[in-house]
Amino acid sequence: MDRKQAAGRKAAGSANDADSAGPSFSHHRAPGYGLFAELFCLLQFPFLVAHYDEAHFNVGMLGALPYAALFFAMLANGWHSDQQRERRWHCAVPSFIAAVGLLGLVAQPRSTPISLLLITLATLGNAYLPALWAMPTEYLSKSAAAAAVGMINGVGSVAGFAGPYLFGYLNTKFGSFSYGLSILAFSSLAAGLLVFRLPKRNLTAAG
Question: Is residue 106 pLDDT above 70, yes or no?
Fold first, then answer.
């Protein structure tokens, strides 16, 4: 009982500190946006759930929901993209949805269901991947497409390495996740808009 009471007092003190600082789930690191932005949401959500419910089973079950939603969204987006023979909007719309979720997280909601909804929206940004990886071979020759895929992976890896440091720096400097989340939302929005720089193509049934 003494250990539980001490843990309770420590948790209460941490909650009071968080209230005075502003964010409700601050003290956890997260990656930035590129091919890695949604990892922020997926990695942070279990910690957020644990703040409200310490039962490991509940944390695991709720933490799996964004993954489940992404699984079905990715399949549906890829299938619909193939059926409609269209790539640009199927890349852009998931990015816009992710931007909405990230902007909502800037407000640092204290409600677990609201946070779950926003994190799921941000996670759905990864649903653009089936349409994205179909684009290089439709716009470029085989050799150029191979180089393009390698460059995309290379740039994404650099961003995945530098993103956590930038996000952590902003969180340390300003004491809030809001600045980092705002950058992620802007990056997601910019990614969706940049897709439309590609020329529109009317694909045949054969691809």
Answer: yes
Q: Which domain holds residue 135?
A: 33-197
Query: In whole angstroms, what is the distance from residue 89 CA to residue 165 CA?
Result: 31
- DSSP 3-state assignment of 3? helix
Task: Give per-residue pLDDT as tens, 44-56.
Answer: 555 555 554 555 6
pTM for the model: 0.69
- Residue 1 lies inside a defined structural domain of this protein: no
DSSP class of residue 128?
G
Does residue 96 form part of some domain? yes
CA atoms of 98 and 28, how far apart (whole Å): 20
Domain-embedded: residue 45: yes
Indicate the burial class of 79 (C-beta count within 10 angstroms; 0-12, 13-18, 19 or more): exposed
Of the candidates 170, 188, 185, 203, the one whose C-alpha atom is nearest the C-alpha of residue 35 is 188
Cβ-Cβ contacts under 8 Å for 127 (sequence gap 6 or more):
70, 73, 74, 76, 77, 94
Amino acid at 159: A
**pLDDT-based confidence at residue 105 (cuts at 50, 70, 90):** confident
Q: Is residue 39, in this structure, part of any structural domain at all?
A: yes
- Type of residue at 175: G
Structural domain count, the chain: 1
